[in-house]
Amino acid sequence: MERSFAARGLRVLLIATGLAGTTGHLGGCSSGGGSSAATQEAGGEVFRGAATYYRNDALGEDAVPVGIADSGFRLTHEALAPYLVATYNLHDPGDPDVTGNAAHGTTVASLAAHSEGEVGLRLAKITDSTAAPDDLLAYSVGLLADEGARVINHSYDGRLELPHSESSYREVKLRDSLERIVTANDGLGSVYVVAAGNDGEPLEAETPIHGLPMVFERMLIVGGSEGGGTSLNDDSNFPGADAQWQSRFLTAPWEAAAADHRGDSLYSLKAGTSVSAPQVSAHAAAIIHRWPHLDAAEVSQLLLDTASRHSPLYALDTCGSDGTVNCGLYYLGQGEADVEAALEPRGELSAPLGARVDGASVPLSAASLQLSQAYGDALGQSAALTDMAAFDALGRDYRVDLSSHVRQTADRDLARRLSRLAMTDAPRRPLTASFGPSLGLTVVPGADAEPTASRLDGGFGGLRLTAFRFDGDAPDPTGPAQESGLMPMLAFQGGSPLTRRFDTVSGIRSELALSDDMALVAKHWRGQGSETAGYGAERSDFALALDLSGELTLTAGVGRVSETRGLLGARGTGALALGERGITRLTRLRLDYAPDERIAAFAVYERGEGEADGASLLHGIDDLATDEMALGLQWRTARHRVALALRQPRRLARAEATFRVPVGRTRDGRVMRETRRVPLAPSGRQRDVELGYAFRPDARTRLAGNLLYRRDPGHDARAPDELAALLSVLRTF
């Protein structure tokens, strides 16, 4: 039996020299022919006829092999030549020439080559007329599959009939030839695209091909649509009421401009399901080009699942002989093939945690890295998280940029600090209470009268103990600015990067006198919070305090900050999570000067070194060094107080972050990674200079003002300098 073209021929002739940009150089060719020694699993010799293989330097290594079994082909046409890989003459096995009767085959091949992904054409001539034998059509499927075709196109009707179980061609059983689309290409198979035909009738078959379910689930039947997929052309065949045909049926435009066999740069407007089918073949090739690991069943099902159902026919259930079949399914099957939708991710994109795509992963939406002020802008300005791969539910990789998931949480909002001082005068007047000669309580109330900090001091012989508590975003009541009695300054509000994430911080400090002018000081605190997402931090310090002159005290010591899932207050989640261990080792010097009741001053310098483990994309942070300094000076009388503050917040002097970033995948599912190292030293160095003045004109009135100048806010040299001023008036009644 012979089958006719599923096209209605030329509708309008358009003569052009377009598509010149797609021409390429044919680097040479080599010929082979006769029988091949390769065999199919069905047994028997695979017969290729006169085969010609082309060396095509214009094609990349990732070009998707697309097989077309059709009439002849104009191989020199600019729409075919750049993509040509091999030709096979199955119609006349002794003749390598496949260019005779080239009208239909040239049209079909040019449309299949017009893909969003690069293709390599394998063209098999099976007829020299408008019809082709069924056995040769079925046989060509196995040949093209064995030749590596990932997509096979038959723009002939009648491809829905299952060959008889004993039917064969040149000793190859035809059912076995069809089944090669299941096992070829190392098990990835071939997408088999066929035209529905142009009789304007429901599809039917005496022995339906879905009797081979493994073949059928790799098959796509294509009808011709109009109106952007809203309706079917009257001449196109359609699924009808058969749910099996509906399940594998797609539509594509009935008309398309395609290569014309009468000239190397000539194009015509063609029509028919012969034109519709290769458009879907091009879509399948585009998917495989981007994700060659997908097998034929996955690719074909993806096109079916993402087909557009925007036709109003899907809202009607009045079709079929009994008037109860959904009209969209009846005429359009699964809908209009939509390659753009098919290329979109399925499900949520995720980052793999291990070596394989199908292993553990975390969704990108959960990826977040919040850096403390110490980090500055270095990571945000780097390209460490750009052009990386994330994977959808089908294991397809997409290029993503996670740079926007990195945020600096530096307290650069001066308005917040101004509010802290302006809303209440309580921070300027701590509440104190004594419980005997050696026990005292100090409470710092906030704007809502709730305490923001407190300390309980007690003495037992040569040992002094202090238990303290403060809100994570409030100053430490045992810090140098607070213990020196410095008037509240904007520079010292907002808490430390290490504590700002916690609801509260609790700790204890001990001071053991070793002699009249020497004491051993130990201090430990731990943060607590309900929304820290696994982040934890604690700090221990040991120091020796020397009274140098009765007015000047030097305290020198060492400390250690231990953080869980963080480092220097930075915290990551999901794909940007930090590991369980973050360590910073500290060295600290502090000077306190108090010659009399009017003058008080302090200076602090602290340097740290450390590292942190990574947990996902962030492999770790190493070679970390930090520094921090603060200076405060105050002069006071009964009615006046003048203060000066200089401060550089904690800053990374150096550090290197190592990222193991996924950049792709192999066909067997292994994740390809790239190591990226990023220096974390920021571009700037924040420096705060502040003047404060307070005046009491009478016992009930207090005037205060603060003026702060900030250079390189957030250690960002590109950030504009900041200037803030606060004037407060307090009158008690």
Automatic annotation (TrEMBL):
The active site is at residues 70, 104, 274. PROSITE patterns: SUBTILASE (PS51892), SUBTILASE_SER (PS00138). One of its GO terms (biological process) is proteolysis. It comes from the Bacteria. Keywords: Hydrolase, Protease, Serine protease. One of its GO terms (molecular function) is serine-type endopeptidase activity. Residues 63-311 form the Peptidase S8/S53 domain. Belongs to the peptidase S8 family. This is Peptidase S8/S53 domain-containing protein. The lineage of its organism: Bacteria, Pseudomonadati, Pseudomonadota, Gammaproteobacteria, Oceanospirillales.
